């Protein structure tokens, strides 16, 4: 599977968002990761639906929406997305998460199921027909700039094996949180396909974003981890 990188918009210069998006596009990333929080599912509030729609109108980069909100079904219609975009919802965010995933798919958008560090990978099994991606959180969600939790590597291996055993090697695994080039390399070998790049790799003060993206891609190719 082709390895993709997704730029985390919450880590961009929020006072110069348009310029940042231009810079992100110029750096050749594959996806634009937009974190949406409600202050309840996670203890923070970041970007919102009007911004998602404004960004969608502005850029051709496919959007990778990460909903860290309770009962995300309430908000699916607030976003004007299409078949190129992905909306990920957390397993614990609704007691009827199947209904939410189905609603996303019915709108013709790709659906992702997001797993917190403690969420067992077997929750993917029953939802397998309703997902286009598994989002493995490598930090507890809510904030940029955190340290990866120590079980992230085994979690990624387990998720990859679990999906493969279900005959779904085609479902990509996205990893999100503290994805530095070094962590990204290891997680790539362990089965991750899509890498959310935030403060650990793409948004480094004083460093050219294009160069950071190129370095991350090069690191994925060169690293040999056993
Ligand atoms: C964490 C967010 C991430 C974050 C990743 O809750 O979902 O998208 O921006 O960035 P860093 O590299 O700062 O962990
Ligand atoms: Zn995220």
Please characterize this protein's 3D structure.
There is one protein chain. This protein has helices at about 15-25, 50-60, 95-105, 125, 150-165, 180-190, 210-220, and strands at about 5-10, 30-35, 65-70, 85-90, 110-115, 135, 175, 195. By secondary structure, the chain is of the alpha/beta class. An eight-stranded parallel barrel has the order 1-2-3-4-5-6-7-8, surrounded by four helices. Helix 6 (about 180-190) packs parallel to helix 7 (about 210-220). The chain is globular and about 45 Å long. It starts with a strand and ends with a helix. The mean pLDDT is about 95. D-xylitol-5-phosphate binds near residues 8, 66, 139 and 196.
**CATH architecture call:** Alpha-Beta Barrel
Largest sheet: 8 strands, parallel, barrel
CATH level-3 fold name: TIM Barrel
State the helix count. Answer: 7
Rg, nearest Å: 16 Å
Throw out a few tags for this protein.
alpha/beta; TIM Barrel; 226 residues; 19% strand; globular
What secondary-structure arrangement, pairings included, does this model have?
Elements: E1 4-8, H1 17-26, E2 31-37, H2 49-58, E3 63-68, E4 86-90, H3 97-106, E5 110-115, H4 123-126, E6 133-137, H5 152-165, E7 173-176, H6 181-189, E8 194-197, H7 209-222
Parallel strand pairs: 1-2, 1-8, 2-3, 3-4, 4-5, 5-6, 6-7, 7-8
Helix pairs in contact: 6-7
Bound molecules: D-xylitol-5-phosphate (DX5) and zinc ion.
Quick overview of this protein structure:
With 226 residues, this protein is of the alpha/beta class.
